Amino acid sequence: MPAHNGNWLAEAKTTLNSLMLGWRPTSAELMGASTIDGWFVVEASDSTIRLMGKVSGHPNPNVGRGPLTITSILLWLAEDSGWARTASRYYFLGHPEPSRQPHLSQAERANIVLRASAWLDDQLHCLEN
User: Fold this and answer.
1) Which of 10, 21, 56, 71 is 20 to 30 A from residue 115's alpha carbon, by CA?
2) Cα–Cα dist 113/108, whole Å
């Protein structure tokens, strides 16, 4: 995700808005998604919410080489459907890390969406100015 190009930000915002309005990806759209196992939700040093875990099947061969990978900003977590959407891609959710990850409440999932939306708005506003 090049920092100088806001296209990915606009695409992430469009995807998040669609998810908020009830749209869900089809199985065809999820085809080829990376998998994240032993995952848990983390707050990154920039105060964004992300997933961390062991990633496999990522299109970048360098991603997933280490024991844990931190994703781009988490936009949507659909634990019951087994997928998540980050700013850059979909992930299939493998097993969560049991010692660190209880199932998130509806309020916690809503907080992820609100924080992602605010962050994307802020980043897009910065690009405009």
Assistant:
1) 56
2) 9
110 CA to centre of own chain: 13
- Six-digit token pair at 68? 């844990």
- Number of helices followed by number of strands (H, E) in the chain: 3, 5
Distances (CA, A) of 16 to 52, 64, 72, 98: 20, 25, 14, 27
Q: How many Å apart are CA 82 and CA 63, to the nearest integer? A: 21
Beta strand residue intervals within 62-126, DSSP E: 69-78, 83-86, 90-93
The answer on pLDDT for 2 being more than 60 is no
The amino acid occupying position 61 is: P
Contact 34, 92 (CB under 8 A): yes
Contact (Cβ atoms closer than 8 angstroms) between residue 20 and residue 3: no
Confirm whether pTM is higher than 0.85.
yes
Helix (H, G, I), strand (E, B) or coil at 99: coil
Model confidence pLDDT, tens digit, residues 82-96:
999 999 999 999 999
- The strand pairing partners of 42, in sequence order, are 50
Q: Which amino acid is at 79?
A: E
